[in-house]
Write a structure and sequence with these properties.
18% of the residues lie in helices and 28% in strands. It has 148 residues and is an alpha+beta fold. The protein has a domain at 46-147. Strand 4 (95-101) and strand 5 form a beta hairpin. It is globular, with a radius of gyration of 28 Å. The N and C termini lie far apart (90 Å). Residues 1-22 form the signal peptide. Keywords: Signal. This is Gel scht.
């Protein structure tokens, strides 16, 4: 009887080992890579409709500028009463925008910008990812509106 039990255990062990080898690997060693966004070629002077300063409700200003064939956004932190000369002294490194459609831009950090009403308004998704951007904790991840 001991012989029969030993043979049964051995057969079961081989069967389990065979199933384990045939089972798909459960450890996923792949790394997800986000899909590349389609780029959009701006027409000459197309950015002119957006190259302005836009005021946010919290008093910050998002300024859009074009240098050569590149577009940038700069966020400035200041109160409503400061003058333009004070703004110029608080300039920070601009963040490059990548055009993805008419009036639509993204940054390498995942900020999405969409202009509307002939450039009078811009919706900024993930605004908190821009340098010097200030966002209340409850508003992180919510679209931010700015008007010129």
């Amino acid at each position: 009887m001991n012989h029969v039990l030993t043979r049964a255990v051995a057969a079961l062990s081989f069967a389990v080992a065979g199933l384990a080898a045939a089972a798909p690997q459960t450890a996923d060693t792949t790394v997800p890579v986000p899909a590349a966004r389609a780029t959009y070629q701006l027409a000459p002077h197309e950015f002119d409709d957006y190259a302005f300063s836009y005021r946010l409700a919290n008093g910050q200003v998002a300024e859009f500028v074009e240098q050569g064939d590149r577009q940038y956004v700069v966020v400035r932190n200041h109160g409503m009463t400061q003058t333009m000369s004070a703004l110029q002294t608080k300039r920070v490194t601009p963040v490059q925008l990548l055009a993805v459609g008419p009036g639509k831009f993204v940054t390498r950090d995942g900020v999405e910008l969409s202009f509307a009403n002939e450039g009078e308004m811009v919706t900024i998704t993930n605004f908190e990812r821009l340098p010097r951007a200030k966002v209340a904790p409850a508003d992180i991840g919510k679209p931010t509106l700015a008007f010129r």
